[in-house]
Structures are given as C-alpha cells and as structure tokens.
Design a protein that fits this description.
Blueprint (H helix, E strand, L loop, with lengths): L2 H18 L14 E2 L9 E3 L1 H9 L3 H13 L4 E7 L3 E6 L1 H14 L13 E5 L11 H19 L3 E8 L4 H17 L17 H11 L8 H26 L6 E4 L8 H11 L3 E4 L17 E4 L10 E4 L8 H13 L4 E7 L6 H11 L6 E6 L2 E5 L2 E2 L12 H8 L1 H8 L8 E4 L11 H21 L6 H5 L9 H23 L3 H23 L11 H25 L9
Parallel strand pairs: 5-6, 5-11, 6-7, 11-12, 13-15
Antiparallel strand pairs: 1-2, 2-4, 3-4, 8-9, 9-10, 13-14
Amino acid sequence: MNLFNDLRALVIDCLDAMAAEGALPAGLDFSNVAVEPPRDAAHGDMATNAAMVLARPAGQKPRDIAETLAGRLAADPRIASAEVAGPGFLNLRLAPAVWQGLVAKVLGQGAGFGRSSLGAGQKVNIEFVSANPTGPMHVGHVRGAVVGDALASLLDFAGWDVTREYYINDGGAQVDVLARSAYERYREANGLEPEIREGLYPGDYLIPVGAALKEKYGASLLDKGEEHWLADVRLFATDMMMEMIREDLAALGVTMDVFSSEKALYGTGKIEAALDRLKGMGLIYEGVLEPPKGKTPDDWEPREQTLFRSTAHGDDVDRPVMKSDGSWTYFAPDIAYHYDKVGRGFDQLIDILGADHGGYVKRMKAAVAALSEGRVPLDIKLIQLVKLWKNGEPFKMSKRAGTYVTLRDVVEQVGRDVTRFVMLTRKNDAPLDFDFDKVLEQSKDNPVFYVQYAHARISSVLRKAAAAGIAVDDATLAAADLTKLDHEAEIAVAKKLAEWPRLIEIAARSNEPHRVAFYLYELASELHALWNRGNELPELRFLQEGDAATSQAKIALARSVAVVISAGLGILGVTPVDEMR
C-alpha cells in the first residue's frame, strides 16, 4: 500500500473525468502529475502539482484547473479538504479515517508493508567491496561493503532480482608483491630472519600463510629462485587471503552470490573478445594521446597506443587499452569484466567503488554504453573516506594489518549492528566521521541507539500488555477500534508511517540506501515524541488502565512502528532489539 500512489490515482481519475466533460482538452499527458508531501507541513498532508504542469498544454490558467480539480477531489471521502494556494498549487488534507486505516494496513501486511514491484523483476548486478586479495579488509572497505549490501537489500525489497558480486583483483602486480611477502614469512617459519623490505606487506596476518606454506612445502622452496616458486606461492597466498576476506565479510553480515576473478580474464580470449566487439563498432584505433593538461611530466613522450574511443560515449578523452609494449592497461580487463556482466543478461549494473576511482567513472560508463549498445545502464557510487576517532583523537593503525585499521578492529570494538548503521548515516559521497565513543552513547545524538530504543520501548509495551491479559497479536490489533487514534500526536506517527512505501521507491530509484537510515531516525523521533507526550497527557499512554479496547488501538499504532522499524533495519542489515542493555 502506497498512500501517495493511491491519491495520485485519485487525482488522475478526476483529471480524466474533467477531460471527458470538456473541462480539459483530450489527450493530455499526465505523466508529470505528482502527489507528494508539501514543503511546509502546515499547508496540509499532501500536495499536487497537477494544475501547474497541465496549464500550458491545456491553454488554461493553473488556478482555474486547480479550483475545478479541488471540487472533484473534495467529493472523495478520503479528502477532508482541498485548498488552492498561490498560482495553482493544490494542498490536500486527509480524513482521520485514512490515517487510522493505514495502521490496520501495516499490521495486515506485516513485513511486506512498503514492498514494491517497482523493479518489475529486472536483473541488477551490484559489484562491491572487490578489495585486493592482499590482506584483511580495512575500514574503507567496511563502508563500501555496508553500502553495497544495504543497496542490494533495498532493491530486492523494491522488486529487483539482485546479484551481489565481488571482483577479485588477482591479475595485477600487487599479487606478486603478496607472494614475495608471504615467501618471507615462509622463510621465517623455517627459522630464518624474514626480509620485509620496502614495498612488501609487513602485517602479521601473513605469518599464518608462511606457516601453511611450510606445512605444504617443508624447506623445499628455500634454495630455489623466484621463478620456481612465485606462481605457486601467489596462488596459495591469494586463496588464503580470500578465505580471510570471506570471514571478514561474514563478520559484517555480508554474503556474496558471485566471486569473479580478474586473473580468469587473461589468456582466455575474454579481453580480446571484448575489444573485438568495440573494434567492430569502430571504437578501437591506433593513436597518440594529447599530453596531460597542465604541466607536462618530464618523462612524457608522444607514443602510439591502442585506444578506446570513449569520447563517443561521453568521456572527456579517449583511453588506452594496450600499452606501446603490447601489454594490457588495467582498463582492458575491466572492460572485459563488464562485457561479461552484460553478456550474463543483467538489465542494470551498479559498481560501488572507493573515492580514488573518480577518474574511472566516465570511461567505464562509456565502455558499458558501447558494449551494451545503450541497453544496460551503469551506475557508479563512489564511497568517501571514513575517519576513525577514539578518546578525541584519531584511532591508530592495526598492528596486525601493519598499515591500517581493519574491519575486524571496528566490528570487535562496537559490534556489527552499530558498525553497519553508522556507515549509512551519511550519503555515500560525503566523508564520514566514526567516533567509537559517540556511536556507543545512549542518547538522541546516536541514531542507531535512538532507533533501537524506539523498537525496544514498543517491545516493552507489548510485554506489559500481554502480562495484563490484553491480546496484542497483529490480527487482534488490526481489528481494534482505531477511531480512538484521534490525537494530533498519534496522527503524526501514522503520517510518518505512510511515507515508508514512498521512501522505498525514492531510495531505490536513486540507489541511496542511506535514505532508509534517515527515515528510521525520523520515525523513531515521532514515536519518542508521542511517548513523551504521554508523560504529560495520560490519555496518550499506550496502556490505558481498565480500558483494553483503547489500549489495543494505541498499541496497534506502536506495533505498526515496530513493523516498519524492523523492516527498515532488515534492509540495513541490522538486527532490531527488544530490550536495551
């Protein structure tokens, strides 16, 4: 049930009737007619722009259209009043029965309230995390993992067929560095002094890898040159790192559907096939790029390269796919990887990448647009940095990782639920401060506590009601006399509940799961405000002594809030709590 969609359908019906009667020209396009919350809540419950967007094509004054439309809308029992404002905006106030009935709808639909068919079963691939398999996940990966996983849950809730995918960057030079670093720990396991020279990975996490290599190979690799052991150690260490990464993801509550390997693209003809596809479109050519804008580097020299004509699809410059020495650029396997995703039949692709990939966005969108002939949109979400604080100071690096704070450091400090919620308290492209002290505060300033506290308060009410012999199952509450919910503070909570289905569709269209976290905080605020009003006005308390019928009506409202909070936290990957500890 989406009340805003229901009221928009009413507006469209009235406009159709006006056209049938000649009050509007036939054949008008109503696609831009919207019903949404007014900018100022004092103006009403909903507003429609119908008269404003139809005035010019209808050749009429917007206020004239609005006044006729208002008269028709006012005849519907759901509309308490329809008022024309300014040049032709139309503000609507809904009858109390609408809000009261909404509570019954929430309880009747339960966890399904707010679910949408917006996605219409379209297949969407969300690639996220995709950390290099060279060590444990760090705090930057945490935010990307949470955003990607929450977005996947959001799109699933809104009707998409979602695939979560991890792209293993195991084809570059960094995995050779991993192998050399692991080999030093292998030497250490054999009683030799490791040489952790500059450029190698110094973290203690490679000590178990060295021990495992010793268990498999004994001392047989010690007297051999790199050409004899590099490939085997690289594969061995990469596999162990990926197992560690899977465990890190599990600690955060993230499960991938697919793991794809960059290395699997090399030597299989997949890179060549993708570039041949572009070549057949006339988008691959041999050429010389202009020097970089600004100061030209001293070592820059014009040289012919194999280039992708990405400017044909919106990029600023064409991009090299093969170096002058015949080796692939890093962009070439990425093109092949996305070509593979297009070939798997996805209707939409989403990449969640670190902020340092800003220069990658246009070229990758250009490649996907070309490879799919414009059929498959690619949305790239950049994840800004997370700054960690504790005791008023920057949080120090992890000794185990050697150079950074790990995912495990964060989760072990504050727990999975807090970590996930806090990572969604800012839009993905805004920097985020993660203060270990503040995220554990029990105050209104801590969003995760505030939302969880609202759910726990409602659970407490349900327990007390059950102990008093009042039936509080959802079916009984949905059948209660909800006309008893007539106070403005109670109606305000119902109005906020009505926004949930609309919020889901807005967040899904924009691929912005943080909107769910913001909404849950606002809903929790309405619940807490009603609770606090009950301290002043006994008639607003959820439990009315000696009046089971009124208690059930008020508890029905509270329980509806719990249903939506639970659903929203589920999208965020956070477990609702029944009591605070």
